[in-house]
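Tip: read the tokens left to right.
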């Protein structure tokens, strides 16, 4: 079981819990010594093991518990599909933020076949279609587990997020402008 856990990129304890819950999709056998044998060999799978990178994101630290649960759900999904988990990336940041360091590092790597996210908006509020196209050009598939569309609610959330983002930038620009004006004023004032 330890080799199985390492291959999937999960802890031994997680693999043990999956075994006890009957969630390991491969033949298993427990020896009289207590050792659990999992008949799992990625090399025997047709086409080899499918390597997956899991990406989970929440917008604020208040939702950190949800981030962990999201990561666990995606891990269980990947195991059920027989994927080899290469990365589990958890990040806190706005879906509108185009400067998410962990996602950026992940997108620069080329040693996985599937980028797995729970909902489309976990990857980004906008532009996920373009990310999908670019990933496919690199030979990576974007797999979204839950494609349910919230319709009106999601649209309202996006509108509020856009307004919040633009308001933050606008007020930041005003503050920067006032600061620049003070510097110019100080440079133009006569020195004593």
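Filled-in amino acids:
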């Amino acid at each position: 079981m330890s080799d199985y856990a390492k291959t999937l990129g999960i802890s031994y304890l997680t693999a043990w819990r999956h075994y006890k819950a009957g969630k390991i999709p491969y033949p298993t056998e427990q020896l009289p010594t207590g050792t659990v044998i999992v008949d799992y060999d990625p090399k025997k799978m047709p086409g080899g093991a499918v390597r997956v990178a899991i990406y989970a994101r929440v917008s604020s630290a208040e939702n950190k518990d949800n981030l962990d649960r999201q990561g666990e759900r995606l891990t269980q999904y990947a195991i059920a599909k027989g994927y080899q988990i290469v990365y589990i990336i958890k990040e806190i940041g706005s879906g509108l933020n185009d400067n998410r360091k962990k996602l950026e590092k992940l997108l620069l790597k080329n040693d996985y076949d599937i980028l797995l996210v729970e909902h489309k908006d976990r990857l980004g509020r906008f532009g996920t279609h373009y990310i999908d196209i670019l990933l496919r050009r690199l030979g990576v598939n974007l797999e979204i587990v839950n494609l349910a569309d919230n319709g009106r609610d999601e649209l309202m959330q996006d509108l509020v997020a856009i307004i919040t983002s633009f308001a933050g930038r606008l007020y930041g620009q005003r503050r920067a402008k006032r600061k620049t004006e003070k510097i110019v004023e100080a440079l133009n004032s006569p020195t004593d």
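Residues 152-188 form the longest helix (37 residues). The chain is about 50% helix and 20% strand.
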